[in-house]
Amino acid sequence: MTLTPEQQSEIDAQRASGTTTLRATAPGMEQHLYTAIPVLDHGFIRVIDYMGDDAAITQAARVSYGKGTKAVSNDEGLIRYLMRHWHSTPFEMCEIKLHVKLPVFVARQWIRHRTANVNEYSARYSILDREFYIPAPEHLAAQSVVNNQGRGEALSGEEADRVLRYLRDDAMRAYDHYEEMISDVGQQGLARELARMNLPANIYTQWYWKVDLHNLLHFLRLRADAHAQYEIRVYAEALCEVVRDWVPFAYKAFEDYRMGGATLSSGALECVRRMLKGEEVTQENSGMSKGEWREFMGVIEG
Ligand SMILES: Cc1cc2nc3c(=O)[nH]c(=O)nc-3n(C[C@H](O)[C@H](O)[C@H](O)COP(=O)(O)OP(=O)(O)OC[C@H]3O[C@@H](n4cnc5c(N)ncnc54)[C@H](O)[C@@H]3O)c2cc1C
């Protein structure tokens, strides 16, 4: 279960105690505040706090005294200009603080994004819950034959059953031993900070994660991408929805120029120019390696 009834009632109480403020609020984000968005089998993302909205980006860009906006359409145009020209600091004026529950192996990928502030649940101090990520059968896939860092078709039949059984049994056995080792009934009981080391990487951890919008968009560009591992991608996709509701203009610009856009090398650009002139350009006469050509064709053919 993602949340216990006690945790849910704490969240409900937080949502029920409204306060008034002079600060800018984003209506779309107010809807998300404190609610838990389920991800994977036991995980979630919860918005704990945020600062700023689309107007905060343009205000900072204009170093304005007031709201800094002449018309909403000007705001959108300016945000698109900033995104297009990599003028990124105005996006850093918006911040978000999240509570995330995620498997440890996903956390290891996530923590590589250093430009954020993190506080993780302490397994030295507290006892971890018996909660493990077990992939749904359609996500239990074979090693990819074309990409060393990816997966191919879903496993099937006896192999799928056996793998799922191993994942469940190994996790349960490791947790049983964890519980037994930390128990002080009839023994001294091993320290939590040591007992945790036999737990598998699919156990869930939790953290508070605070980041500014510029670095969040960088995270989303890498982790909501089709090449990112499924288990972190689903968190990034859930976050994309939150960001869309929070700063709709910035998110639209991000979709256009970053997620949906592409960067071409000078050689690739030269090939496009030759193609536009009607020249037949092939990998052999492009000056690109086979891999680069394949990626280039992926970009221009869609
Ligand atoms: C598909 C994919 C596969 C990956 N595979 C691997 C892998 O096999 N092995 C592996 O180790 N990692 C891997 N990574 C992680 C990757 O190398 C980055 O560590 C991760 O994506 C975080 O990116 P970042 O450093 O740009 O982000 P952040 O840490 O948030 O940094 C944002 C930006 O700030 C700047 N910055 C931050 N800290 C510093 C610093 N100390 N010095 C200089 N500039 C800094 C950089 O410009 C950086 O781009 C993979 C990531 C992806 C998306």
UniProtKB/TrEMBL annotation:
Binds 4 FAD per tetramer. Each FAD binding site is formed by three monomers. The active site is at R223. Its EC number is 2.1.1.148. The keyword Translocase does not apply. It catalyses: dUMP + (6R)-5,10-methylene-5,6,7,8-tetrahydrofolate + NADPH + H(+) = dTMP + (6S)-5,6,7,8-tetrahydrofolate + NADP(+). FAD binds at T89, R112, H113, R114, E120, D212, L213, H214, H218. Its cofactor is FAD. Keywords: FAD, Flavoprotein, Methyltransferase, NADP, Nucleotide biosynthesis, Transferase. Pathway: Pyrimidine metabolism; dTTP biosynthesis. InterPro entries: Thymidylate_synthase_ThyX, Thymidylate_synthase_ThyX_sf. Belongs to the thymidylate synthase ThyX family. This is Flavin-dependent thymidylate synthase. It comes from Roseivivax lentus. The gene is thyX.
